[in-house]
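#random but structural
TW: two for the price of one
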Amino acid sequence: MQFGSAVGEACLSFVLTNIDDTFVLVTFFAESKSSQNLTPLKIVIGQYIGFTVIVGISLIGHAAAVGLPSEPIGFLGLLPLLLGVWKGLGVLFPKIDGEEEDLESRRIANAKTILKVVAITIMNGGDNIGTYIPLFSQVKGAAIAIYVVAYYILLGALCFLTFLIMKQKHIVYVAEKYASFIIPFLYIGLGIYITVKSECFPWTVHEIDHQFLGNRGKIVMGVVTSFTLPFIMATMVWVRVRKQ
């Protein structure tokens, strides 16, 4: 992979997986203005420690799968795709009682030390881990190093930009108003990109055709996909509706 391409993909994946974290950072910096315990420096340190844990978990997950061919690992690209569907359903079926929002607000309001900033950063890192593992599996070691270095540089830039955004309330308002509608499509797009790039479906079809007599790969994959994805999505809809 070329250097420019790796940097571009690193920037795209970082922005996508850290949009939500921007609002958490906004809350941290807002609280730091009225708290003696929580300072901008502690926020940045906590963010870097928490993000290091997230990257470490992602690298461990990648290492655990390194003995496998890269093509089937591409099926993990369905995770960000399904995550996008889940977030989209959250827009269509929002919680009326606001329980999740209230719980998150209480967690953020109590974040007055570096350790608590770290904890909240890790709690919000599920999206990152679910995206980074399949993404790392599609590139070689040198590209992964570029990704990680770019992530750390971008994290510093994110903290700095968020600090500046805190002084522009109208920007925060617009972002909070429209981000929930845009984020699901970004995740779905990323999931499709990872899945297509890995060629996991053609590889699986070829393996099935090779293992069994006849060209049954397309039929098997068609049946499995036709039943599995609708079932998962129907389950997600059911869970979202029940939470209303």
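TW: number two ↓
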Amino acid sequence: MHHLVNCAGVALGEGGVVECSESAWDKTMAINVKSIFLTGKYTIPKMIEAGGGAVVNIASVFGMVANPDECGYAASKGAVINLTRQMSIQHAKDSVRVNAVLPSDCDTPLIAGLLGVEGEELETAKRDLAEPIPMGRLAKPEEIAAGIAFLLSEDAGFITGVSLPIDGGFLTR
């Protein structure tokens, strides 16, 4: 085993701290954080045995900035960023690189489903979602994949502990 991409996540629209149920909080943390903990726990030793490897954890721009409507999601993605840093510092000596990507909203069928609209309404909703992104559009899945592929590659052989925004400039605002 030389490569691992942790790409599981849930956003439940749980609201702020007051509105968020304990069950929504627990589910979000289990899927978004504990899954990365467990895959790292059981995969990194195999990478060490194989002479090294690379891990990419999928976080989010919302791990760096507050989202008033999703306290659990934002907290979980912040935890992913810091877990990535912890894993990277612990396993650098083992030739295991651990990095994260921080995508902004991405134009996928999942987004269409979350927005709950179709046709022209969907296009309007996606434009509204892209409004705070300086490049003026949502990310494409292949752009996120290219960042992940780079971090897994030997071209990134001296990169560890990095959280790479793939966000069209979202975090610069």
